[in-house]
Amino acid sequence: MRSKFNSSDWHEAVAGIVAGSDHKSIAQALVSAIGLVVHHEGTCLLAIHSDARPDVVHHTLEPAGRKHYLERYLAGPYLLDPLYQLALRAKKPGLYRFRDQLPDRFRASEYYKQYCERTHLLDEMDYLLPVSRNSTLVLVIGKRTRLFGKSELLRLQLIEPLVRAALQRVWKDRASSAGHPATDDRVHRRLTECFDQFGASVLTEREKQISQLLLRGYSSKSIARELNIAPGTVMVHKRNVFSKLGISSQYELFSLLIAALESGSPQPRRRQ
User: Fold this and answer.
1) Sheet holding 135-143: strands in order across?
2) For 206-258, how does the pLDDT look when each residue is reduced to its tens digit (9 = 90+)?
């Protein structure tokens, strides 16, 4: 492991971060440095805001991956992302493994199938850095062929201070850039209100809560713990939700939500 940090390539990479003159060059130098520490198959640097949609600061995704993972993701489904939820918390880790803090049925959720599984990421490590009262920078480092090994996880932990310092510089330059447009919260507000009120015309408040947790990948047992009610009560509410919405599966529930987000109306409507 020590040889990784003793190499001339590593020191040149660190020098590239120090010499970076703008947020784009700093981000690119940081990604290059991380690539010398661990093997990965893609990175994405997102700014996640409590009052606006996430926006992409830097990425190394191919065009198809960008269209699928970023453009579709930013159209509304980010509201179901566990990483997005984590970034909004007051207390959050500086570095964490995506697979370690997921709802118990997340991999069976339609969000996972539609927006995670299709990226072919097998493993993911994320750096999180609060940079303002409303914003957190998140650097996603993904693997598609195998899991991160113990030595790789240790190296990622060792370079966390460097990553944090580089991300601070990225944010400072980006925030002060005259060519960078101010964050527009109108679309986010519309999407959030639509999600929060999804099915409100036919569902009770408790049923709305349960449908939101189902969409985020929680099982009936974990929903019961989250809401401090009996699992049997959750099942009754779930049957009521499906009956009132005229659906019979999680897939249909997810499809109704996506259609609602696209139309901007929380009233569930089946896709034509």
Assistant:
1) 55-59, 43-49, 135-143, 123-130, 95-97
2) 999 999 999 999 999 999 999 999 999 999 999 999 999 999 999 999 999 99
State the DSSP code for 149.
P
Q: Could you list the residue range(s) of the whole structural domain that residue 86 is in?
A: 2-176
Confidence category of residue 11, pLDDT binned at 50, 70, 90: very high
Closest Cα to residue 33, out of 132, 174, 172, 165? 165
**pLDDT tens string 131-157:** 999 999 999 999 988 999 999 999 999
What's the half-sphere exposure (Cβ side, CA atoms, 13 Å) at 216?
24
Other Cβ atoms within 10 Å of 226 Cβ, number: 14
Is the separation of the CB atoms in 241 and 231 below 8 Å? no
**CATH number of the domain to which 232 belongs:** 1.10.10.10
Q: What is the pTM of this model?
A: 0.89
Same domain, 227 and 140: no
